[in-house]
Amino acid sequence: MLSTGALRAHLLAAGLAGTVATSREVSLRSYRLFAARDPRVTLGLDPAWGWDEGELLRLMADKCGVSDDPEHRSGPDVIDPERTLGALAAFAERLAAAARRRAPVLFGTGHPHRLLGFYAALADALSAAGCLVLTPAQGRCVDITTRFGVRTHLLDYVRGVALVRDADLPPAGREPGAHTHSPLPVRAALESALEAGGPLPELVVGDHGWVCGAGQLGIEAIGLADTDDPALFVGEAEGQVSVAVPLDDGVRSDYYRPLTRYVLNRACLSR
Predict the structure, then answer these.
(1) CA-CA distance, 243 to 216, in Å (whole number)?
(2) Is the whole model's pTM more than 0.90, yes or no?
(3) In a structure prediction context, what are the per-residue pLDDT tens digits for the chain, which is 271 residues long?
(4) Rounded Cα distance, 131 and 28, in Å
(5) Residue 254 and which of 21, 118, 132, 224 are 20 to 30 A apart at CA?
(6) What is the rounded distance in angstroms from the CA atom of residue 271 to the CA atom of residue 269?
(7) How far apart (Å, rounded) are the C-alpha atoms in residues 9 and 204?
(8) Contacts of residue 5, Cβ cutoff 8 Å, sequence gap at least 6
């Protein structure tokens, strides 16, 4: 059993919370782009409210613990570990609720290099609890706009977790998957599930467009988000996203293992 105090210490030591690698400049740029409804940062969310930069900064200060001073414009950003712990507890509660009703669940990540192991462990635990871990649209092509233009990606699943691979790369170069913010993969997965007659997920777990894209369509969604991902926190504030956990989403993959143990213990899903 990992105590809350031990996890707090780990969050700070690993750079998951406290002073994080995401820069203040990058975060503020994301808030500016979100206020302009740039699809690169709205991640499939269509906000119901009009959010300007100041409102977004105040929201992120409340949800993540970043500085609410608009004049603070450089240096590393900060995440309050207490907010991370509180959100992880809520995240675990949603997993526990899904396990109790044996709900069909869909996992997906835009950070396969870092977060695949975290989600895969949760998928294994929910499967063992009787949940159906869905894998719709495997092998389907999805055209995603990248900084290199529109690239065709293949939707794939590893240990029950959806990710995309760049179809233009040779097979060896597609591992372990591509980084993406796009909501198009989750839309493709849900469309395929619907065309096949279901079941549809009752819970989507992931990050980036997987969470916002599902939440925008009315499916319960929970996930992880960095200080430069305001869309998940806006979605949480507006009710499209059930839980957004503030943490650095780009640290070493093994640094997320204590979070896995903590969440599974809180959800009573440890084996």
Answers:
(1) 14
(2) yes
(3) 789 999 999 999 999 999 999 999 999 999 999 999 999 999 999 999 999 999 999 999 999 999 999 999 999 999 999 999 999 999 999 999 999 999 999 999 999 999 999 999 999 999 999 999 999 999 999 999 888 889 999 999 999 999 999 998 877 767 789 999 999 999 999 999 999 998 999 999 999 999 999 999 999 999 999 999 999 999 999 999 999 999 999 999 999 999 999 999 999 998 7
(4) 39
(5) 132
(6) 6
(7) 29
(8) none
